[in-house]
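Notes from the pairing session

We agreed to fold both candidates in a single pass and log them together. This is the raw record for the first candidate, unedited. Please don't reformat it; downstream parsing expects exactly this layout.

Candidate A
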Amino acid sequence: MLDPIGRDEAREMARRELEKPIYDRDQPSWLERVFDRVGEWLRDLFNRTADPTVHGNGEMGWISLIVILLLVAAAIALVAWLMWGRGNLRSRRDALLEEEPSTARDHRTAAEEFAAAGDWPRAIRERLRAIARDLEERAVLAPQPGRTADELAAEAGEALPELADALRGGVRIFDDVWYGDRPGSAEAYAQLKALDDRVRAARPRPLGSGRAGTEDTDDAALAEEAGLRW
């Protein structure tokens, strides 16, 4: 005969049985429970806000309205912060290169020094400046005081169409860290450095190559006048 199970032993056996994962798989996760509670809270706020004088307490209705307005303002501020580096007007307005004389080598040296110090925003800016100065030194782009980073990507992309997307991506990295207050990283700097190497190795499209009906003699004259661009 089996010994009878006592009350405490039965309770412990039931507890161990209910702790098995099979009984919890259909239960909502903690994240789902949080979303449900937040959703209920927001629905309650909207119900109170529909008419602040209802629910027997006008003051609570007005408080709900203020809370909703604050949440909307916070959401707008978050979106603006996330998008700040994507479409920053300063990147379209501020000159990339300074007026002081400099060479691509100068900017590359400065970029490496900033990178060694972990100053990624300045390292990225100097590496993009090196790209801009290199293109001017090789007569791919005409020297233009006040050229912005966006203008650099657009003009260099016409001369180097195979690198147009990479140039826009490099300027986007620069915008994010320099105007969008992103911290920058070694990976982001490595992308600018690789882009610099690709630009240096690329052969730009000769002047007049895209003009329909232009004679070879005219193309040669244009290339000679432009210093062969490369």
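Candidate B (folded immediately after A)
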Amino acid sequence: MVKKQHKKESLLHLIYRLVMIIIGAACAAIAIELFLMPNQIIDGGIIGVSLILDYLTPHMPWLSFSTLVVILNLPFMYSGYKQIGKTFMFSSIFGVVCLALIESSLHDFDPFTTEPILATVFGGLILGVGLVIRHGGSLDGTEIMGILLTKKLPFSVGEFVMFINIFIFAWAAFVFGLEQAMYSVMTYYIAFKTIDTVIQGLDETKAVLIVSDYYEDVSDAILHRLGRGTTKLMGKGGYTDEQKEVIYAVVTRLEVTKLKSIVHEIDPAAFITIMSTQETQGAKFKSAIH
């Protein structure tokens, strides 16, 4: 069997992915500037912290939301470079910068609604479009920090993010009032469920089964380009009755897009099954080499 060299992302696909990230960042900017901020409602994570700090520093234009969301995200994006890869890091930085630029350009527009419940529902829906995550990036460094820290702590990424957001929403209650904090929790929940629908699953980890004639190349690429170990299972074709090796791997949801790209670069005909997992335990997954 002839081994194939690992291909780089094509220029056309890169342009398409960047355009989708721009659109995703624009949706988030519209939700934040025209729905949430005018009604003193926040999202969770770094975006929520940036919104609170922006509200608390009205006479400091250099500490606006657009500036804060970039500054606060950059350390986490950089820290995630070795953990999740340079493609994810650059996609995320590009998305955050687009979010900041587009949000700052919307200051002169009137809010779409000043009714809190409408702002909560539609702001959450638009914020949860999820195009940035779907195309290999992130607008919030909280999950990256969770992935990094949970390797050394006995918590899942979901538990860590929830723990951080409890403090953020409690802070929002002191700053904006209890009602606005409750609206904020609703916004976060709606956005979370919307992303869940858009990208078909937001579980912390995904179990992946891959059937490919180039299983050695695929397995090697997943290890060295994604940093995830694989397990080779013996299978047999139901129609041909031929022996086949099936690759089994577990990845975080942030890594799913990159994994599919890696596999299809090597073998466009590969059969991939991605399954949601309730929980993943074991030192080998948390300490995967990147």
